[in-house]
Structure formats: structure tokens, C-alpha cells
Fold this sequence. Notes:
Layout: E1 21-28, H1 36-39, H2 45-52, H3 57-78, E2 87-89, E3 95-97, E4 100-101, E5 104-113, E6 116-123, E7 127-133, H4 140-147, H5 150-157, H6 164-182, E8 202-205, E9 211-217, E10 223-230, E11 236-241
Parallel strand pairs: 1-11
Antiparallel strand pairs: 1-6, 2-3, 4-5, 5-6, 7-10, 8-9, 9-10
Amino acid sequence: xxxxxxxxxxxxxxxxxxxxxxxxxxxxxxxxxxxxxxxxxxxxxxxxxxxxxxxxxxxxxxxxxxxxxxxxxxxxxxxxxxxxxxxxxxxxxxxxxxxxxxxxxxxxxxxxxxxxxxxxxxxxxxxxxxxxxxxxxxxxxxxxxxxxxxxxxxxxxxxxxxxxxxxxxxxxxxxxxxxxxxxxxxxxxxxxxxxxxxxxxxxxxxxxxxxxxxxxxxxxxxxxxxxxxxxxxxxxxxxxxxxx
Length: 244
């Protein structure tokens, strides 16, 4: 099964010049735990309060690193200080940034799993991203029966036992990325639509007629991720490793 392996570039933050470019960033959150005290300075007061409510220190440090780096990247794209970024929930709770760059919004989405964080950025047009650690202790077939479309469940059942974990997360990340891109959350049940499981990348038409392109990629050994964006397969997607 082709899981979409790609090459990651070193940190290189350049302005988003057009709507046909998507930047995807990989962040290993644990690498930034020693910098927690300094990273807190980039957060808004409500984010600091939220960080202090975490029970476990590891989770608190992950949250601080993720939010601080998100603000750093948004600040770089927008040309403002990280602490000045205003992030709020959209109509259905999808996080948005209020600032404009050249009269256009920077759209972003974030996902993390077991210490690995993936962020996506684009001008104006929507995107969604999802990352999952491949785990064997997941009740794949129970989840499939409840949340996957019949076509997806049948395909999953045809895989060998060695392929089913990767196959399940290939479906799951694509569906989650699309739901996050559309921004409908629980208003779009996962079993009401099906994704292509072998075509890479592929287009899907939403209920409102918008075209979404979905692609799967391997951000790191043992993980799987998917990106869903408005538009066509001609989008230029760049993948970066975040370093300070």
C-alpha cells in the first residue's frame, strides 16, 4: 500500500504568494519541551490559562509548544509578532485568524498525535489536516461498523490482517481531514460519504458543489496523515520540518 512518502525540507518560511500553494509543517513537540518557559511568552493570556489547567506536565508542554509554533508560523506569514495574532472560533468552531495579508486570510489547520504535530497553511481557500499514530490496539472493525461507509468497510475487510491497521488509518485520516476542511464537525457524519482508498490524490465533490482534493502522506515512520484542500490536483504542496 502506497502511503505517500515525501521529502521534508528544512525550515524556510516565505510569504504565501498565491492561493495555489499549501505549506505543510512537521513539528516534533518533545524537542521543544526544554523551551517551554520562553515559548509561553508567545501565547495569549487565555492560552496560558489553558496550559496551566493540564494535569500532566508532558501534555502542558506539548500544548505550549504547539500553540507557540503555530503563532510563530502565522506571524511569519502575516508579518506580525506571534503574541499579536488573534485566533478565534469560526461559525462552527473551526479556528481562524483575524489578521489579513494583502487583504487575504491565511487559512490554517492543525493536528497532533502522540507527540507529532502537523500544520497546514494556505491563502483564502479552506484546508483540513489530520495525523494519526498507527496503533494496533484500536478496535478497527467496531469503529468501521459505526463510522465508515459500506464501501470503505468492504475494502477494509478484503485486506490481509497485516494491512488492516494502515488501511483503516488511511481511510480515517482522509475522512477527518475532509471534515475539518469543510468545517462541519459533527454536522457531517463520517458514514455519510466515502473516500477513495487506493487513488492518490483524488477529488471529492461536497454537498455545496465545492471540489476537494485529498492526499495521504507519511510524516514519520509509524504515522499516517492526510491533507484535504479546496481546488484541484495542480496545487503546489510544500513539506517543511520546523526548527528554530
